[in-house]
Amino acid sequence: MNWSTYAQFGFALVFVLSLIGGATIVARRLGYGHAARGPRSRRLALVEVLSLDARRRLVLVRRDQVEHLLLIGPASEHVVETGIQATLGAERMPAASFASHLGVADAAQGAVPCAGR
After folding, report:
1. Is the pTM for the entire model greater than 0.70?
2. Integer distance in angstroms from the first to the last C-alpha of the chain?
3. Please, what is the Cα angle at 54 between 49 and 59, to 5 degrees?
4. Per-residue confidence at 40, pLDDT binned at 50, 70, 90?
5. What is the pLDDT of residue 65?
6. Which of 21, 33, 60, 75 could make an SS bond with 48 (beta carbons 3.0 to 4.6 A apart)?
7. Which residues, other chains included, contact 54 with Cβ-Cβ below 8 Å and sequence gap of 6+?
8. What does the DSSP 8-state code read for residue 2?
């Protein structure tokens, strides 16, 4: 085999790969390849997250217009409240007053009185 055979093989390989790439671009523009990301409504949404301290967070999750309040820590997750009916257009409580509602001593610092630890 001489160098012209290797060069011919290299050019053929580049040509075939460019044909595959071009077919991929054309297929995506025609709408193929996006079936998993089609227009559908999402059932799960993260509504709000509040850091209580460096290790724990309160998370409000909405699923099918029902909200669930979760306490997430490094070792475990707890369901604080479930079955909260989500209301559209309802006013949200600011994070500082939400933290004070939970008993957070200093909402700016995120310090939480922790009984039992």
Report:
1. no
2. 76
3. 20
4. low
5. 84
6. 60
7. 110
8. -
3-state secondary structure (DSSP) of residue 62: strand
Look at 111 and 5; give whichever has higher pLDDT. 5
Residue bearing tokens 């227009």? 39
CA distance 28 to 10: 27
CB 76 within 8 A of CB 19: no
Q: What is the DSSP letter of 94?
A: P
Q: For residues 10 and 18, what is the distance between their CA atoms, to the nearest angstrom?
A: 12
Average pLDDT over residues 69-77: 91
For residue 10, give both structure tokens.
């290299």
Quote the percentage of the chain above a pLDDT of 90: 38
Question: Strand, helix or coil at 29?
Answer: helix
| Cβ-contact 115, 103 below 8 angstroms | no
Q: What is the pLDDT of residue 43?
A: 85
CB 96 within 8 A of CB 110: no
